[in-house]
Design goal:
The protein is 33% helix and 17% strand. By secondary structure, the protein is an alpha/beta fold. It folds into 2 domains: 143 residues, Aspartate Aminotransferase, domain 1, CATH 3.90.1150.10; 273 residues, Aspartate Aminotransferase, domain 2 (3-Layer(aba) Sandwich).
């Protein structure tokens, strides 16, 4: 069954009785059931009534080229007429081979081997297992990981062990595994009280101390370069990233760059690590790799790491890991087409003027007293909401201010989703300046409406 609210089509409670939604409070579905989306075109998705919604978050950051891109759709259809899947153990398909070549041609120099999986969490799991087995094969006792407060690397148990968003991870840390954590590079709420424009990346003093104390037992340091995504779009300067790499080199600790969310042009560079002009030992990729069409992930490693896994029968030099849909040719074909579009359109270089416009107009949200911090990099914009700008006190939890703003925006035809007290914009690269204006205009109306409703709780 479908129910109508004005001109909006939503699923009825009867329809939802068998579904379990991700990151969703069940009771919210009672008064705000999910939209039933029928199709997508470009920047918009449409419900069954034909109402369009500007997708300002790229459907969890994957639709980098918009919805229903004709070139990617055609590549999948063409491959579908040939083969839907074959296992990648003793077999391989041309799209899987082609994609590896295309990735190596754009990855930071030195990353020469590609291991396929199917989502960001598994890309991280692969990276962690590679790092651990690499150390063991070398005869090293290094078995720990260092990660950052505010980190999010996925929802499988290994990925959660290096995540530190208490609301997501605390229950599982208490029962399974928790790694070592150091300060978040959270410039708005700097853990060392410095200003990002004048600091010397002192937030990474905690990393240096951890490496000094435990570097000889640490297999790798994992981090989200330039932006901690699910932690609230915490954007930090390149000098911090440079110091992370420098410290890991000093203590001979492997670097794992989680570029699942920020890879493929999102930060203004093809890969976020390029801001520091560094190449990690291991890089995790997913989300935008197929343009949002199909699940696919890749874990890229340097050749010296792969060398340790070269062995014959009965040796321990084999990577015991795989996925049923590793190297799926449909997903690989979609990814090849996506990379072809990025190359032809000269993304991210061609986005510079659009990014400048996006970031300039984002500053207009300063008119709202509840906006404590406005941060941006590339085609990412984030607004951290506060109760008081001077003290940076957050809104009271019961106000659910960011959530209310996003719900109001959806009613007005703008697809947003909050991250705690942060409202963010991660639109497809195809967005125009006029659509940027419209996106921000609707968001402002949503803010005014939500504030009118929640004044009493602030």
């Amino acid at each position: 069954m479908i129910r109508y609210e004005g001109s909006v089509m939503k699923a009825s409670s009867d329809t939802l009785k068998h579904l379990w939604f991700p990151f969703t409070y069940y009771n919210d579905l009672e008064h705000s059931p999910p939209l039933i989306i029928e199709y997508g075109r470009g920047l918009y998705v449409y419900d069954k009534s034909g109402k369009g919604y500007l997708d300002a978050i790229g459907s969890w950051w994957v639709s980098i080229l918009g919805h229903n891109h004709p070139e990617i759709s055609e590549a999948i259809k063409k491959q579908l007429d040939k083969l839907e899947h074959v296992m990648m153990a003793g077999f391989v398909t041309e799209p899987a081979i082609e994609l590896a070549d295309k990735l190596i041609s754009i990855l930071p120099r030195g990353l020469n081997r590609i291991f396929y999986s199917d989502n960001g969490s598994t890309a991280v799991e692969v990276a962690l297992k590679i790092a651990l087995q690499y150390q063991a094969l070398k005869g090293s006792q290094r078995s720990g990981f260092i990660a950052f407060s505010g980190a999010y690397h996925g929802d499988t148990l290994g990925a959660m062990s290096v995540g530190m968003i208490p609301h997501y991870h605390a229950t599982f840390h208490a029962r399974f595994k928790m790694q070592s954590f150091v300060n978040s590079p959270y410039c708005y709420r700097c853990p060392t009280g410095k200003e990002s424009t004048t600091c010397k990346a002192e937030c990474m003093d905690s990393l240096e101390q951890a490496l000094a104390d435990h570097g000889d037992t640490t297999a790798a340091c994992i981090f989200e370069p330039m932006v901690q995504g699910a932690g609230g779009m915490r954007i930090y300067p390149e000098k911090v990233l440079k110091r992370v790499f420098a410290l890991c080199r000093k203590y001979d600790v492997l670097t794992i760059a989680d570029e699942v969310a920020m890879g493929f042009g999102r930060t203004g560079k093809m890969f976020a690590c390029e801001h520091a002009r560094e190449t990690p030992d291991i890089m995790c990729l997913a989300k935008g790799i197929t343009g949002g069409y199909l699940p696919l992930a890749a874990t890229a490693v340097k050749e010296h790491i792969f060398d340790e896994f070269k062995g014959g029968f009965a040796s321990d030099r084999i990577f015991h890991h795989g996925h049923t849909f590793t190297g799926n040719p449909l997903a690989a074909a979609a990814a090849c087409a996506t990379l072809d579009v990025l190359k032809r359109e000269k993304i991210p270089e061609s986005l510079k003027s659009k990014v400048d416009y996006f970031q300039k107009n984002l500053q207009h949200f300063n008119e709202f007293d509840i906006v404590g911090d406005i941060r941006s990099i590339g085609m990412i914009g984030a607004l951290e909401l506060v109760r008081d700008r001077q003290t940076k006190e957050p809104p009271p939890p019961e106000s659910r201010l960011a959530y209310r703003i996003c719900r109001k925006a959806i009613g007005l035809g703008l697809l947003l989703r909050p991250l705690g007290n942060v409202v963010y914009f991660v639109p497809p690269y195809i967005i125009s300046e006029d659509e940027i204006n419209n996106m921000f205009h609707i968001a402002k109306i949503a803010m005014h409406e939500a504030l009118h409703e929640t004044d009493a709780t602030l």
